[in-house]
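Reviewers asked in the last cycle whether our approach scales beyond single polypeptides. To address this, we selected a multi-component target totalling 780 residues and predicted its structure end to end. The input consisted of the following lines:
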Amino acid sequence: MTAAARPAPAQAARPMITFQNTSIELGGKVIVENLNFTVRQGEFVCIIGASGCGKTTALRLAAGLYQPSQGAVTFDGKPMQAPRRDIAIIFQDYGKALLPWRTASGNVSLALEAAGVPKGKRVARITELLDKVGLPDHGKYPAEMSGGMQQRLQIARCLAQDPVALLMDEPFGALDAMTRQGLQDEVLSLVAASGATVLFVTHDLEEAIYLGDRVIGLLAHPGRIGIEVKVDLPRPRDQLTTREHPEFLRLRRELFDFIKFAES
Amino acid sequence: MNAAVTMRAAILWRIASFGVAAGLVMLWQAIADARLVSPVFLPGPDRAWNALVRGVTDGDLVAKILGTVEHMAFGWLFASFVGIALGALIGSSPRVRPYIVPTLEFLRPLPVSALIPVFIAFFGLTQAMALSVIGFGAMWPMLLATVHGFAAVEPRLYEVARSLHLSRAAVIFKIGLPSASPDILAGMRLSVTVALILSVVCELLAGLDGLGHWILLSARTFRSADLFAGVILLGVIGYLTAVAVAWAERRLLVWRASGH
Amino acid sequence: MPSAETWKGLALPVVLIVAGEIAGRMANLTDIDSLAPPSSILLAFIEAVRDGSVLTTTRDTLFTAFTGLAIGGAVGLLIGILLGVLPAADRLMEVSIESIRPIPSIAILPIVLIALGFGYRLEIAIISFACMWPLLILTRAAVRGVEPRLMEVSRALRLSPAARVFKIVIPAALPRIFVAFRLAAGIALIVSVTVEIAINPLGLGHALMVAQQALRPDLMLAYLVWLGIVGWGLNALLLLAQNRLFGRAASVEDVR
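The resulting structure, written as structure tokens, was:
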């Protein structure tokens, strides 16, 4: 299609995020049970499921914020015992994940300071990143920004980590439809440019199909894989044409049936 | 256009407010002149002002003012450093908090001045006693406020810190302290008030150089004009310190005001 | 069975008491006149209860505190409501109030001393002065913070100003007014004890000073612990009342 199209994931077959028979018990309840899946390098995998099915928990396991009770979660072959600096986590409650006392620049700077980037080099990188996500006003505080802008700021800070993987927890759930669509396309282009591996949790199945190379559907109580589909739609995706594509509609029906089945 | 009108209205109200205050002062003068209350108790504002001027030029009122200010300053500095440091350590550790916070909360309503006899027992009626009392007393609100502030840090930010691999020092200084700063500043306001009160009381009791001692002497010798001058000066000190803390709050908490 | 949280909270006081007892016995603290082991403190307290001094001093301190709270609180409440309902009056009085407010209540002690001499009235007067301000400031804020929609309703119903104040403003502001009284009660206790320590020969503060001067550290510390219990108990009682009466409505903004 265009130069921005990513290479088909099958060519970069290296497994990055791997769940092996992973189970976790929290507060006496088994949240997820026997998860088995792999996200390969450069892949964009989406996880869907009804509320409470454990998809956020699965993401937090991948992030190293939780440790599995059974089985293992590995990244690039190494077990995830703690969060890694090169795996960026994008939280749903962006307001709480930003430092309210720092400006946009300050928030992005935090990631650079943590990585030990010397002061002189920070300014250029901050400018580059904020421009990349479309935030021209570097001196604004989060409280002065709209929801969409705050989420972009969080994305900018995550990009400052030079991540090889992005873990996104329903990042657009709290935003209105138009902002959501704009950000979906921005994320797609950012990820295409960097070649990062992405694990994306959402309750919106159309969003999952639109963004992903693969969609995994979880059943609830306990969370376990119920369905796994490949999304064979051309890239780059387009809000109008892709969503009218017959394959998109087919997948949509398939996943809709799954959700109905899962909720019954 | 609208902003200019409201600004002008605000200034006019302020002037009117000063006018009312001036009117009250004149009322005070009238009552004193008419000797409705004995001049032993209520000197007129003119006599109080003269006493103030006399005290500064002839007497050692300046030394007394500095004495009280020094006591307060010491107390506030000690309170800030120790209170914030201890509060940060306690507040940022969820393992330590359940052991220490209940005791702190139990001690919160205890009147700080009740410690004065205990410190007198240790140090006698000395400067050391006063500084210990003021330091310890002023530390208390800062400690409690800082613990609360650190305990209330948004947990999501701690997860961000883990994700970025921030060092423990960076977590305290870049995340904990700024997040707790509204609480810390509220504690500072209280701390400064406590420092003033304890300074005055200790000066009263131990005869130390300060405004507390000044007003006690004036009361003993029935020099009501001097007494009123001292009381007014204490009010001025209280006012200036409150303004200073409010200014610090505005400067440091810019991010709170924006977006509301 | 108390929760793990309760055990953890009790750990520190228990450790301190035990350590104090051991250290006291070892160092033979009966020779030192500034500290006493916990057992001596307890005995001194029991003795003071028996001879009635705990009762009289506590009664005196609480009496002056509550009376001062009532008087100062009432004045502060009235002025606060007035200033809250009449913004013009509020703006006119701004400079005067902001000038007098910073004067520490302890500073007016010598003035009142000359006028009233030692005793209950001295203490009550100073406590009233101290309690007036928090009530004034917080009541004014509470009145101003009454839901504007309610004020519109009162205008639509054409209520008289008095009716508006009594039927809408005060009930709406009541939770925060109660919080103001609770905080002022704490201030009342503190000021009461401070005045007694500084100069007034009655109450718990005075008892503390007397015990210290008589070189009775056990008695002094007994009164100190008792004072802590009284302060905590008073606050806990008021907090309980607040939660019972108002629930969530009152925990809006705890001014520290």
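Residues 168-206 of chain B form the longest helix (39 residues). We regard this as preliminary and will revisit it once experimental data from Aim 1 are available.
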